[in-house]
Amino acid sequence: LIMWMGELITERGVGNGMSLLIFTSIAARFPQSIIAIGQAQSPEVAILVVAIGVVVVGAVVYVEQSQRRIPVEYAKRMVGRRTYGGNNTYIPIKVNMAGVVPVIFASSLLYLPALIAQFNQPANGQVPPGWVTWIQNYLTTGDHPLYMLLYFLLIVGFTYFYVAITFNPEEVADNMKKYGGFIPGIRAGRPTAEYLDYVLTRVTLPGSIYLGLIALVPLVAFVLIGANSNFPFGGASILIIVGVGLETVKQIDSQLQQRHYEGLLR
User: Fold this and answer.
1) Residue 118 sits in the same domain as residue 170
2) Of 96, 141, 193, 195, which has the maximum CB count within 10 A?
3) What's the total number of domains in the chain?
């Protein structure tokens, strides 16, 4: 039923229907989570959480919109009596090219030890093995520094892994060379691929650190204020909310511009 509704929204609405349904599901839990924090702690803590959430959302929007633009020039070429090329463009390399995928990968991988330990729980009140107790103490609740460190390192590693799969500098360099494009000051071919790989590696580092810090926000909140794991402002939920929101705004803006209206944010 949900898949069918998502397809209907995609066909008759704006943007991806499943993404909008996930967006709505996450956003609907925000008021309940804030009220639960206010009841468990105090109204002042809830107001502080909302203020921190506004700052986190602003930072996420800023980083998600950030990109490194590599200038590309195309040489002029004659085809018959017509001249093609000669224009300037750029290759946009986003700071966060991986999106929310590394966070999902890291959390799924860290869940495996707890799952294995759960299957090896002894029956009849017997003492569990030492490795099962160690996993329960350090890799289950998420409030231990070792768990946070492993979570952060896995996110950084999966970010580089995912970016390496989705963006191929050699393929981009070959396509540029095929159509007469080049980066000013860089020779076409292999030097261009090496330059793109160098820039991509440097840009991905702050992006991976940013993803790790955003993912740690709910865990740190759980330690500091005793919030549950459904802390609204952080982790995969805030990345999905901001990503879908920005994409929906772009879709609406493009629809308005196609109909000769001004942009949505003007």
Assistant:
1) yes
2) 96
3) 2
**Interacting residues of 232 by C-beta distance below 8 A, sequence separation 6+:** 29, 30, 33, 34, 49, 53, 238
Q: How far is it, in rounded angstroms, from Cα 155 to Cα 214? A: 11
Nearest to 253 by CA among 98, 24, 245: 245
Read off the CATH number of the domain in which 132 is found.
1.10.3370.10
Note the pTM of the prediction, 2 decimals. 0.79
Q: Is the pLDDT of residue 44 over 60?
A: yes
What's the DSSP call for residue 261?
A: P
Q: pLDDT, tens digit, for every residue of 223-265?
A: 776 665 556 676 788 888 888 888 888 888 877 777 766 655 5
Same domain, 92 and 169: yes
Nearest residue to 63 (alpha-carbon basis) of 264, 211, 253, 265: 211
Do 46 and 34 form a contact (C-beta atoms < 8 A)?
A: yes
Question: Residue 263 carries which DSSP code?
Answer: P
Confidence of residue 27 (pLDDT cuts 50, 70, 90): confident
**Sequence-distant (≥ 6) Cβ neighbours of residue 180 within 8 angstroms:** 74, 75, 77, 85
Q: Is the same domain home to 248 and 120?
A: no
pLDDT tens digits, residue range 198-233? 999 999 999 999 999 988 888 877 777 666 555 667
Give yes or no: residues 88 and 171 share one domain: yes
Beta bridge partners of 69: 92
Per DSSP, helices labelled H in the chain are 2-12, 17-28, 30-40, 43-65, 101-119, 130-138, 145-166, 169-178, 190-224, 235-258
Domain that holds residue 80: 72-229
> What are the DSSP calls for 114-160, one per residue?
HHHHHHTPPSTTPPPPHHHHHHHHHSSSS-SHHHHHHHHHHHHHHHH
